[in-house]
Design goal:
The chain has 22 helices and 15 strands. Strands 9-5-4-10-11-15-14 form a 7-stranded mixed β-sheet, with helices on both faces. It is globular and about 75 Å long. The chain starts with 10 loop residues before the first helix and ends with a strand. By secondary structure, the protein is an alpha/beta fold. The protein has 4 domains: 80 residues, Arc Repressor Mutant, subunit A; 150 residues, no CATH class; 113 residues, Vaccinia Virus protein VP39 (Rossmann fold, 3-Layer(aba) Sandwich); 166 residues, no CATH class. Bound molecules: S-adenosylmethionine. The site of S-adenosylmethionine has 21 residues, from strand 5. The site of S-adenosylmethionine (SAM) has 21 residues, from strand 5.
């Protein structure tokens, strides 16, 4: 049997394929070209033909043009596969609103569903407790709390533990992370009993960090609410098998984006949960449930981060109810564990641009700065969290996304704005100019990548401003540690760690150094590249 090529099917091809399979199975016919174009959200015959040709090449359909009309047939190989692609929601137009649905859900609530989930929330005695005082460093390693929301590139909390010990950081000191992301530095510092400050410009990540560092929660109430939500979700999912839930959330997300990320069933479930969670009055519990929702939605979505955003609509993903319930169970168990002691540091999260953070942080107040900043690797951070930002109402349209992008370090060509000119701060650095020129040279005959050299200059200009701000807030003699990976583009190595050290020297740091940290396999270039720690001592 011919093998189907499922590896890089695009969203439009997927939409066309689902329609073909669904029509074939439910109505025993194939869709008209116009129907496929509507599913693909295109008006173009050429795009339709290219899509059908690609599905033919990949083995899913047999496609011919006869007398100017496209003739489509599911291939023998695809017939089995096609059953899993039938999606009634795709063709059904019947809708229900949340109020009517929730009335039905309440009527059907059953204790049996509670039993289904209860073992996920094992009671206190069953949870392994260890001596937190003794094991504070180890608790970090076990992913407790950290695992509620891991971000893109894993930032090892052991590094923070080792460096806090090495630099003799004690209670009363403050650790700063100017690119806090999902809060690894803050959670680790808190567990060590040390106060910390995180600066982060993405509102979603600020929310996540705040939730991950607030452990003062009524956990029994959390369990009760989590159980009732899960039970309602099971019932609602059954009702929604052939109905679409009316939802302002789904309407505001750009349609192509929504289709790329979530299958129709998952769209319905997310829209339901969003409205159901909005009814919860206990704010902290609601926020915890939203963090669990973000990550489980992601786990069950079509998306993989590697590290760019890629869509794999045909890849098997965990069922959403399973993913969501296991996240809630982990949160419950982790909270039980950390609440058995109460001597922790305080974490403060500031939503701000770290290129001007001294406006918000007292000068000469920081004892240790440790961070993993963005790299010049063309990774556009809002892209990875776009759907979650819509889900939690941090943005309502692309204009608001754009405003957030403007506050970010220019590590991606998609983050460059016409008016940007922080490149002026690094004109004097030969190393930056050399790398940017070399990349420009490599690209001169191409009609793409033209903005890459500019991105390199803007990136280092931004980092220059940031290092300047770091120096202001650090105490005299205090270290700033930047975990950075060298990058390559068109075979030109960008020695990020060394360039940051050079800029540190220029800014008058007392001592600068670059330590080897580990080798990292670049997903983009498939070659191992060093990850280093640039150490700047004020
Ligand atoms: C490599 S990630 C940090 C990951 C983090 N170490 C963690 O544990 O999740 C870099 C972060 O910097 C943030 N960022 C980018 N530009 C920023 C800026 N100008 N000010 C503050 N944060 C920024 C991004 O939103 C992203 O969350």
């Amino acid at each position: 049997m011919k093998k189907l090529d499922k590896s890089n099917i695009t969203v439009r091809q997927y939409e066309a394929l689902v329609l073909i399979c669904t029509k074939h199975h439910l109505e025993n016919k194939y869709p008209e070209p116009q129907e496929i174009k509507t599913a693909m959200e295109t008006g173009s015959d050429r795009e339709l033909q290219n899509c059908l040709k690609a599905l033919d090449r990949k083995g899913f359909i047999n496609f011919k043009i006869r007398n100017g009309n496209p003739i489509i047939k599911l291939s023998k190989e695809a017939l089995d596969e096609s059953k899993s692609l039938i999606d009634k929601l795709f063709v059904e137009k019947k809708k229900i609103n949340y109020k009517d649905l929730q009335k039905k859900v309440i009527n059907k609530r059953k204790d049996s569903y509670v039993n289904k989930f209860e073992n996920l929330f094992a009671d206190e005695k069953q949870i392994e407790l260890w001596d937190l005082e003794e094991e504070k460093p180890n608790i970090n390693k076990k992913g407790i709390i950290h695992g509620w929301y891991y971000y893109l590139q894993e930032f090892p909390n052991e590094l923070i533990l080792n460096k806090a010990k090495f630099y003799n950081i004690k209670e009363g000191d403050i650790i700063l992370d100017p690119f806090a992301g999902s809060g690894t530095t803050l959670v680790t510092s808190k567990m060590l009993g040390i106060n910390s400050i995180g600066v982060e410009t993405n509102p979603l990540m600020c929310f996540v960090s705040r939730v991950k560092t607030d452990w003062d929660i009524d956990i029994e109430k959390f369990k009760r609410i989590a159980l009732s939500i899960l039970c309602d979700l099971i019932i609602a999912t059954k009702y929604l098998s052939n109905l679409k839930l009316e939802s302002s959330l789904l309407e505001k997300i750009p349609p192509m984006e929504l289709k790329q990320w979530l299958k129709p069933k998952l769209q319905n479930q997310i829209a339901y949960i969003k409205q159901r969670l909005s009814e919860i009055k206990e704010k902290k519990i609601k926020n915890l449930l939203f963090v669990a929702l973000c990550k489980s939605m992601f786990e069950s979505s079509n998306v993989a981060l590697c590290p760019g955003t890629s869509f794999y609509p045909l890849r098997a993903k965990p069922d959403f109810i399973d993913a969501f319930s296991s996240r809630l169970s982990n949160i419950y168990k982790d909270l039980h564990l950390v609440q058995s002691k109460n001597h922790y540091g305080k974490a403060t999260i500031i939503q701000y641009d770290s290129r001007k953070m001294s406006e918000k942080i007292t000068n000469n107040s920081i004892s240790l700065l440790v961070t993993s900043p963005p790299y010049p690797n063309d990774l556009e951070y809002t892209r990875q969290t776009r759907l979650e930002m819509y889900l939690l109402d941090f943005v309502k349209d692309m204009e608001e996304v754009r405003e957030i992008k403007k506050t970010m370090i220019r590590g991606s060509t998609k983050l460059i704005f016409k008016e940007d000119n922080n490149a002026k701060y690094v004109e004097k650095f030969k190393s930056v100019q050399k790398v940017a020129n070399k990349i420009g040279e490599e690209l001169k005959d191409k009609n793409w990548g033209w903005d890459y050299p500019r991105m390199i200059r803007e990136y280092f200009g931004d980092m220059y401003l940031c290092l300047k701000e770091c120096k202001k807030v650090l105490k005299k003699g205090a270290p700033a540690l930047f975990v950075v990976g060298d990058q390559t583009y068109k075979n030109v190595v960008i020695p990020v760690g060394k360039i940051l050290a050079e800029m540190g020297q220029d800014l008058g740091y007392e001592k600068t150094d670059v330590e080897f940290f580990r080798m990292r396999r670049s997903t983009m270039h498939k070659i191992p590249l060093p990850e280093e720690i640039t150490v700047l001592i004020k």
